[in-house]
Amino acid sequence: MSLRQANKEKAKVKLSAGDRGGADMVALLPERLRALIDRSVRLQERVRRSIQPSIRRSPTRPQSVERQVSLLRAAFEREG
Description:
The structure is a single chain. The chain is mainly alpha-helical. The protein has one domain. It is elongated, with a radius of gyration of 19 Å.
């Protein structure tokens, strides 16, 4: 998959915090299911944090870094 394709696919995925329901409803669930939900929420938060820096672009990034990033993109696009 090329970098362009990967970025296109990443743009399709929307990770939202989601609503876990009220505490009274969650309390009715089996303990193992509640633990699974907690693990899932933590994993989603980690994924969201890990991709966040790649989503935000810093306008104050030095030119030399921009050039290196563009060279890397070009190299990956040629491979795909």
